[in-house]
Amino acid sequence: MPGAPAFHAGFRAVLPLWIGIVPFGAAYAVSARAAGIGPFETQLMSLLVFAGGAQFAAVGLVAAGAGPWTLVSTTLLVNLRHVLYGVVVGATTPLRGGHRWLAAHLLTDEVFGVHIAQGRGRAGFLMGAGVSLYLVWNLATLAGSLLAHAMPDPGAIGLDIVFPLAFLALLVPLLRDRPAVLVAVSAALGTWAASHLLGPSLALTVVAPLAATLGAGLGRPTERGA
Amino acid sequence: MSDLSWTIAAMAAVTYGARAWGLGLPTTRPRGFARRFLDHVPAAVFAGLAASGLPGAGPVDGAWRLAAATVTVLVVARTRALAPGLLAGLMLYLAARALGWA
């Protein structure tokens, strides 16, 4: 099949992140069940929404008795940054027909990160990374639903650090020149400061474009061949 | 289907819409300022995601998380590979927790 090596490379590239994704997928399911969400709806959210942050937010809102409009509008707010991911991927990776439709379902923070860092320009890589994450997230959700009483909170055992470390690891190869470093530092400080007012997701949605605009004014990052 | 199932379907629709909208926007390869902007987006996003997840529960825990982040950065800068850097930082932090230091 054309693109199979790229697909396999993308699938493998996400494997190191499974360490963090498995406990968080399970923790999502455990918290959803504790909030009174049935096993079918718990799994349905992982299958259809496939966005960890939004799913955790939804569980909290259901537990607090929020209505459908609050759930949907919060999901939109939390996932607004995905517009930006789509723009970058669409501008750098040729996606045709079914690939474009599938990519729109699979484009999470982690898939975007791994694709841009290691597979930019390769549609097969994007699909492999997306399928890898989709598979493990849904299996972890299923395991969490089935073993709800035996699952520890990943934050309580320190595994919540996997995601910030993974994004740092993806960031390092991009820091090739002064504008890129300034963009990263301003985005980090800006997001950290704005999180106190807006929450992490909305802070990132506001700050990341501002930092990228600053970088665009300073110059272009050193080309990485894609 | 339950009411919650329909709500989940609507949540899925807005999530899919956000991603699909972005993917559908560029019709030609952007140039000039727009190209430079898009080139800088990944670094801005990764730095923001790392910064929002890194702070710990208190100064001691925060210091160990910062130490783990530093180890990850140094290992990735040397090896240019994600997995060794991620594992080195994670092992340091988990060891500090196991020893009761974090």
Question: Please, could you describe this protein's structure?
Answer:
The complex is a heterodimer of chains A (226) and B (102). Chain A has two domains: 4-155, no CATH class; 175-226. Chain A contains twelve helices and no strands. Chain A has helices at 4-13, 18-34, 39-48, 52-63, 68-78, 81-92, 98-106, 109-118, 123-146, 162-171, 178-198, 200-218. The mean pLDDT of chain A is 88. By secondary structure, chain B is an all-alpha fold. Chain B has helices spanning 3-24, 32-53, 59-79, 82-98. The N and C termini of chain B lie far apart (46 Å).
* Number of discrete helical segments of chain B: 4
Query: How would you state the average pLDDT of chain B, rounded?
Result: 89
Low-confidence stretches of chain A: none
Described by the principal axes of the CA atoms, the overall outline of chain B is flat
Q: Note the run of SSEs of chain B as H and E.
A: HHHH
Greatest contact pair? A-B, 98 and 67 residues
Number of helices of chain A: 12
Question: Major β-sheet of chain A, in short?
Answer: none
Would you spell out the secondary-structure blueprint of this structure?
The complex is a heterodimer of chains A (226) and B (102).
Chain A (H helix, E strand, L loop, with lengths): L3 H10 L4 H17 L4 H10 L3 H12 L4 H11 L2 H12 L5 H9 L2 H10 L4 H24 L15 H10 L6 H21 L1 H19 L8
Chain B lengths: L2 H22 L7 H22 L5 H21 L2 H17 L4
Helix pairs in contact in B: 3-4
Brief overview:
The complex is a heterodimer of chains A (226) and B (102). Chain A is mainly alpha-helical and 226 residues long. Chain A has 2 domains: 4-155, no CATH class; 175-226.
Task: List the keywords.
heterodimer; A: mainly alpha; 12 helices; B: 102 residues; mainly alpha; 4 helices
